[in-house]
Design goal:
With 525 residues, the chain is α+β, with helices and mostly antiparallel strands. It is built from 13 helices and 20 strands.
Length: 525
């Protein structure tokens, strides 16, 4: 599985009293919830074994990319300034309040009192400001946090607040404070020579062991949320083979693990041993997309983009490449998203695709052809070959180029040295997270508008979306974005990426979680 998709699915992780993952029961809409298991008395001496797909490279929350395994560990060590409830509304976390000014160019953070880091130092305005300032200066966050011009402390003592100043409106910025950017790190961690190896946060656990084989988190003393955590120790062995992770879940030698591979997803859904299977309720996971380089031939010609778009059979992709576990996609947001807008996306039409391909060939004096660049993993290669055969049905010649590494693919995207490329993108929990893919902001690298497409309508819609915190207004702006993408086709959306969290039958309270101020949390384990 590509690293990009693992990062994109990093919202599907373990996070409440254990470590953290937004999930929902994976059952049909007409089924009633299963009866709760017989309640067993909690033991604060208990341990939980969570299988990691890979070993974290760093436990610095301000260093990206952050894959699923790393985020699972970070959620246990660090708490965030804000959290998200089950209505996707922001609620207080380590911040008692985050208040914007009238034009969303300044945010004032009031820090929750009487909270300490695991090393005993206070979580105060100075510590929060230092962390946010470190985040905005992190090389991997420079583009994302470019609008921030200063992070300062106003006042002193218990009345001190943090002021975040920006040079442009960013109404949705507080959602960043519910993710890694909002993870508050201790001053001692910032001052260490290798912060990524010496994590110190205000979360429920401390790191007590880190080897090539896995990590161990132990319950810390003095955690600020009364009665939490209920699990004394979390063991996180690294189990890279997805089939082995599933087998160990079935055998009971793992309690919880994420499953992202379609074949293994089908396996656990067919399991009869009582495994609990959960999925992301928002469906806002990464989309597998075909990026078209609109700055060079042949895809600087809109008709060429249309010819390719109308030749794609998404149902065949779902069945043959993704074992029926993923869902077909036409746009960047799922139909259940509050930001979904009605747009006329191209669907399979062989006759129309054939006519368009012939028109392009007549205009160019040669049949439509291009190179399709894919990642080195098996899924990317299989998807590329299937698309290659679909294009051939309408006389489009696609040569397959397999990148030697994910880094090589990223370089091709960053430098636009490709005709078309397959990659998971549009992974943001909020559409604003993906604005860099559409040419908004100052991003560089693989996410800096790899298609090269820009337009006044697109730019204006993205500005309008950032200038308001009203969801209806934002949704209207993103509807314009979707219509523009559906018409101009710089990205061809193929399938919604999926992922599951799987737990043994003995794991309890998978859905019982609340925010610090008592609201039902987004369903987590």
């Amino acid at each position: 599985m590509p690293a990009a998709l693992r990062r994109a699915l990093a919202t599907l992780v373990v996070a409440s009293a254990v470590v953290g993952l937004a999930v929902a029961c994976d059952r049909g809409p007409t089924e009633s919830p299963p009866p709760p298991p017989e309640r067993v008395e909690e033991s604060r001496d208990a341990s939980l074994r969570i299988g990691l797909a890979e070993a974290p490279a760093s436990l610095d929350p301000y260093r990206r990319p952050i894959d699923t395994s790393t985020l699972q560990v970070l959620r246990g060590i660090f708490d965030t300034l804000l959290v998200v409830d089950d209505n996707s509304q922001l609620r207080p976390g380590l911040a008692a309040e985050v208040r914007p000014n009238d034009d969303f160019t300044e945010f004032t953070v009031t820090v929750r009192p009487d909270v300490t880091f695991s090393d005993g130092s206070p979580v105060d305005a100075a510590a929060v400001a230092a962390g946010l300032d470190a985040a905005r200066r992190s090389p991997s966050l420079l583009d994302l946090l470019a609008p921030i011009t200063a992070v300062t402390v106003d006042g002193s003592g218990a009345d001190a607040t943090v002021r975040i100043s920006m040079d442009e409106p960013w109404a949705s910025f507080p959602y960043q404070l519910a993710g890694p950017v909002g993870m508050v790190v201790a001053p001692a961690m910032l001052a260490s020579e290798d912060p990524g190896r010496q994590p110190i946060g205000a979360g429920p656990y401390v790191l007590t062991s880190w080897t090539d084989g896995g990590l161990v988190l132990d319950q810390r003393q003095g955690y600020w949320r009364e009665g939490q955590p209920v699990i004394a120790r979390i063991e996180l062995p690294v189990v890279t083979d997805p089939s082995v992770r599933v087998t160990r879940l079935q055998q009971g030698t793992l309690d919880i693990a994420t499953v992202l591979e379609p074949e293994q997803m089908a396996r656990v859904r067919a399991d009869s041993s009582g495994l609990q299977v959960l999925s992301d309720p928002s469906d806002e996971t990464a989309e597998w997309v075909m990026v078209l380089n609109t700055t060079a031939a042949p895809f600087d010609d809109k008709m060429a983009r249309e010819a390719v778009a109308f030749s794609i059979d998404r149902d065949a992709i779902v069945t043959r490449v993704f074992a029926g576990q993923y869902r077909a996609s036409k746009g960047p947001y799922s139909e259940g998203s509050r930001f979904y807008g009605d747009a006329r996306w191209p669907i399979l039409d062989i006759g129309h695709a054939d006519d368009l391909a012939k028109q392009v060939a007549a205009a160019q004096g040669a049949p439509l052809g291009f190179t399709l660049t894919v990642g080195p993993d098996g899924t990317s290669t299989e998807l590329g070959r299937l698309l290659q055969s679909q294009f051939a049905e309408v006389g489009i010649d696609a040569d397959l180029s397999i990148a030697s590494s994910g880094e090589q693919l990223d370089d091709a995207l960053a430098n636009r040295t490709f005709d078309a490329a397959l990659v998971p993108l549009f992974d943001g929990a909020h559409p604003d997270d993906d604005a860099d893919l559409l040419g908004f902001g100052t991003a560089t690298g693989a996410r800096a508008n790899p298609s090269g497409y820009t337009s006044e309508a697109l730019a204006e819609a993205l500005v309008d979306a950032r200038a308001s915190d009203d969801i209806t207004t934002q949704a209207e702006a993103y509807a314009v974005v979707q219509k523009e993408l559906a018409t101009q086709l710089p990205y061809l959306f193929l399938v919604h990426g999926q992922g599951l969290l799987v737990a043994g039958p003995h794991v309890q309270d998978l859905h019982q979680w609340s925010t610090p101020d008592g609201y039902p949390g987004i369903t987590q384990v």
